[in-house]
């Protein structure tokens, strides 16, 4: 049943600041430090690859009805959440629709929840059955393609639950997502234990970009100490939600997390995507490096020279981004396979930023 980091102090020695200024002024000196290497000799892949597909355990095969198992796997993969978590919610709520308690197959229970995944009618969209042609303010979904988002239909309900879990932190922050689904930590604990039992591995696996071990290789590989500070802040925001106009500390939008990350390193850059695009020095594709920005012609009110989305490069081909409200939490993703890339910029080469660095240097003397 569901219901709904501050400026990092600038403390570097004189030699360190001089080094930073030299690095920023001369692109020729901006060579990368050796990357952190993992135990197998390769840096870990910390990009968003969605929820890992886990094999079902014997327990799961025996307990989950075949049609429900197919739906959990199908919509877990489609939306990008762990099917085991979906299945565990279905088990905890209604025993995969087998419960005969009020609200499972018709009506609502004492709390106003309905269907196999026990959505509140208000959270679903205001009505139990909603035509897909109607605007919906909720998670009402049409999983079986019949044109109706039916809270009692397993396909519709499981798809809606997957969307809600994704919106609130899954697959990276599963516990947060489950807490939003039903605001009780005992409930979260129970669902996670059920999910572990449904997985052959006995674990609820998360994407590698959710692991803290993925921060160190990126920060260690930064081309300068200032970039390392910027990355350290940005990466620490992974798992937090997207919120339009937000600059933290609890949520960010795409340009907001970049603005806050630079501010955490003692630097001021424009707040919005439209301001950030002309601010940085343009960098040719292929020469971008950590701390640079990558812009996309995407979103309402955007155009060929008016980007609507921005991410921060953390390594070649990868960026940290706050993408959209329904795209899941802040994460490290790939950009090389994304459409509508407008170009790359380097804010650290803007004259105003160079002046800020000089003032930081003078203040430390």
In short:
The protein is an alpha+beta fold. The protein has helices at residues 14-25, 58-63, 66-79, 83-94, 121-124, 154-167, 174-181, 185-198, 215-220, 225-235, 254-264, 273-279, 351-364; strands at residues 113-114, 119-120, 129-131, 148-150, 281-283, 293-296, 309-315, 318-321, 331-334, 341-346.
Would you write up a description of this structure?
The protein is α+β, with helices and mostly antiparallel strands. The protein contains 13 helices and 10 strands. β1 and β2 form a beta hairpin. α3 crosses α4 (83-94), α3 (66-79) packs parallel to α6 (154-167) and α6 (154-167) crosses α7. The longest helix has 14 residues, at 66-79. The protein is elongated, with a radius of gyration of 23 Å. It starts with 13 loop residues before the first helix and ends with a helix. The model is unreliable at 3-43 (pLDDT under 50).
SSE arrangement:
Elements: H1 14-25, H2 58-63, H3 66-79, H4 83-94, E1 113-114, E2 119-120, H5 121-124, E3 129-131, E4 148-150, H6 154-167, H7 174-181, H8 185-198, H9 215-220, H10 225-235, H11 254-264, H12 273-279, E5 281-283, E6 293-296, E7 309-315, E8 318-321, E9 331-334, E10 341-346, H13 351-364
Antiparallel strand pairs: 1-2, 3-4, 5-10, 6-7, 6-10, 7-8, 8-9
């Amino acid at each position: 049943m569901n219901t709904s980091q501050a400026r990092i102090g600038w403390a570097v020695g004189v030699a360190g600041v001089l080094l930073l200024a030299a690095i920023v002024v001369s692109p020729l000196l901006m060579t990368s430090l050796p990357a952190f290497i993992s135990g197998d000799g390769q840096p870990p892949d910390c990009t968003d690859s969605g929820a890992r597909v886990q094999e079902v355990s014997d327990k799961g095969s025996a307990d989950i009805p075949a049609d429900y198992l197919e739906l959990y796997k199908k919509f877990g993969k489609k939306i990008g959440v762990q099917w085991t978590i979906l299945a565990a919610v279905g088990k905890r709520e209604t025993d995969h629709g087998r419960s005969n308690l009020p609200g499972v197959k018709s009506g609502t229970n004492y709390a106003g929840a309905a269907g196999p995944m026990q959505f509140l009618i208000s959270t679903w969209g205001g009505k139990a059955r909603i035509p897909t042609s109607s605007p919906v303010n909720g998670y009402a979904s049409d999983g079986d393609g019949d044109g109706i988002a039916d809270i009692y239909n397993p396909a519709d309900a499981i798809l809606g639950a997957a969307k809600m879990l994704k919106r609130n932190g899954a697959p990276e922050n599963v516990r947060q997502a489950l807490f939003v689904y039903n605001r009780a930590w005992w409930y979260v604990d129970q669902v996670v234990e059920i999910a572990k039992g449904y997985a052959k591995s006995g674990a609820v696996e998360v994407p590698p970009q959710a692991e803290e071990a993925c921060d160190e290789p990126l920060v260690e590989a930064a081309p300068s100490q200032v970039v390392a500070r910027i990355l350290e802040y940005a990466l620490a925001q992974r798992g937090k939600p997207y919120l339009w106009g937000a600059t933290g500390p609890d949520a960010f939008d795409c340009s907001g997390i970049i603005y806050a990350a630079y501010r955490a390193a003692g630097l001021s850059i424009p707040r919005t995507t439209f301001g950030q695009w002309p601010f940085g020095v343009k960098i040719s594709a292929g020469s971008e490096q950590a701390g640079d920005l990558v812009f996309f012609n995407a979103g309402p009110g955007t155009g060929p020279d008016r980007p609507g989305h921005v991410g921060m490069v953390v390594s070649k081909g990868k960026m940290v981004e706050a993408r959209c409200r329904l795209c899941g939490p802040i994460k490290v993703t790939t950009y090389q396979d994304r459409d509508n890339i407008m170009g790359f910029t380097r804010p650290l080469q803007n004259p105003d930023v160079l002046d800020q660095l000089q003032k930081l240097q003078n203040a430390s003397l």
